[in-house]
Each structure stands twice: as C-alpha cells, then as structure tokens.
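At this stage, I wrote out one protein, both as residues and as discrete backbone shape codes, and that material follows here.
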Amino acid sequence: MHKEFRHVQRDRRMLILVTVSPAIMLLTFAYLFTFDTATSHLAVFDGDRSPQSRQLIQALATDNKMLLSTEASSPDDLRSLIVANKVKTGLIIPPGMGDDLAAGRQADVQIISDGSDPISAATNMNRLTTRLNAWSQSYRGSSAASPVSVHSLVWYNPDLKSDNSMVPGLLGIVLILPAMAVALAMTREKELGSFESLAATPVRATEYVLGKLIPYIVYGLIGAAFAVMVALYWFQVPFRGSYANLLAFISLYLWATLGITVLLASFMSTQSTALRAILLLFLVPSFFLSGLLLPIDSKSKFVSGTLPATHFVTISRGIFLKGLGWTALGSDLFILIAMGAVTVALSIVTFRKRVG
C-alpha cells in the first residue's frame, strides 16, 4: 500500500487522473449535457392589430425568459424567419382575437416552433403556452372558463434546471476515473515486469488486493472533493443532505467500482486492453443505461442494475436534492456494498503470484 501511494505521487499523470480529472470532467460534461434554454427567441405576426394583441405583444416583450426578436409582416415571413434559423419560435395572432376576448369568448392563437431541436422546441412551446395562459386570465369570460383549475407544483427542483439533476448524476460517471487508474497501474506492472519482483516477496493475496484498493479510494475521495466543490460553488447545485453521508456513499461507490476493476484487471496483461475494457464496460454504458439521461427501461433494467453508476446516480441525486439518508437509500447502498465485497473476495481467491 505504501508503494502504491508513492507510485501515484511520483506519476503526475496518474495523480491528475485520480484527483483533478473528475472535477474537470464534471465541469465539461455538465455543460455538454445541459438541457436548459436560457432565452427563447420569438417572432410574432399580429394579424389582429387590436389593443388586446398589442398588450399581449408588450407582455411577451417584457418577459425576461423571452426575447422578442422581430414582428413578422405575414405568416410566410414568420416561416422564413424560422427556416433561416433567425428565431426558434413564432406566434401567429389571427384577426378577431381582440373581439373574442372582449366578448368573453375563447380566442385562438397559433404557436410555431422549430422541431429540428426537439428539446428546445418543447421547452419554448411550453414556456410560451404558460405565458399566454397567464396573460389571458384577465380576459376569461364564462364561456371560456375551464371547469377544472390545474395548479402545478414541482418538488426538489422547482425551476426545472437540468444542471441540478445532471451534475449530481454525472458524479457517478467522473468517479469511474480512479477505477481506470487502478486498472492501468495493475496492467503496467505486468508490462514493465515489476510484478515479477512482487511475486518473489511473501505478500499475500489479501495484502495485495487491499494494498491496491485503499490508495485509490483515498485519492478517489480527494478527486471527489474537488468535483463536489465544482457542483456546489460553480453550478450552484443545492445540497440538502449530510456531508458525512455523502463521504460515506462515495466511499462505497469507489469500493464497488474499484473492486470490480481489480478483479477484471487481474485477467488482463496490457494497459490498452484494460483501458478499452473500462470504457466499454463502465464509462459508455453508464451514460446511457444508468438513468442519467433517460429513465431506465424495463427491458434494460437487469443490465442497468449490474452497473454501480446506476445505483450511485440515484444516491447522488437523492442526497443532493432530497436530503435522503441511509434508510431511504438503503437498497442501492446494499447493492454497492455487495458488489465490492463479492468482487474483492473473488480477487483474493483468484490471486496467483505468477507471471504471464
């Protein structure tokens, strides 16, 4: 273990990989996978030219979530603006809207959005629909009144900021780097022949496996601390849980990922093989099967359950946004503990001091 600590300290590339790289990757991925649209660029065609339509346009122009880029001269002009990618969303106010509102009748308007970016399109249309409904409340007559009043309430992330959800989830992705580092360290010993010297010593399997795990868990926690600071102070993600619990949960996650990696690396002989294995078995599936980007599908539930990142995404979001603890997250924590215990035990059982 002392040798492994000194090895990481002397190898600057390895030190950066396990301490600083998680924070850098979190910063990069959080911007890469953000789905918020800060401002909606809007064009309006006013076919009514009534006081009510002008009030509506004025209300939209003063909305801090919408930028009224231009007023189109015709529906075809509005279409051209969208085709030219000058605006993403358009609003058509038909003739007679003002008369309908004044008479207490329900007025119709049309929203047009650029569907080439479906996430932005859905966000812009929902945002504009909400703004139109809010503005039209003062004009609702008896015939236009809805028999059902809907009140929406969003818990834990009231502004629906994707950063608040993505950044805690991405912690499970970036903290795979210590597992990659230990796999490279173990296979490099075989490539350089230093494992031969180790095989000649009386070191036992338990000492070898734990001697590999403990330093990288320690350095992984240092890297996790930098990543958590990026989440809290750069992205301003709310934290409602316990820092002591977070430290324990990250330790268990590192225990599980490193345990699996040590077991796999014991059967590999080159660094390139280890690198490809970690990318294919951990990093890439964790993006798409862990529930980070999309909810876990019933067809892939079993495969997703075998990934440590699947359970840590739930744990990280739960402690950051909901303030959950050991009781609420017990099932996912138990799986991480079991993953680490089983793989470490198998690593010890299968350990052989042999070369080649």
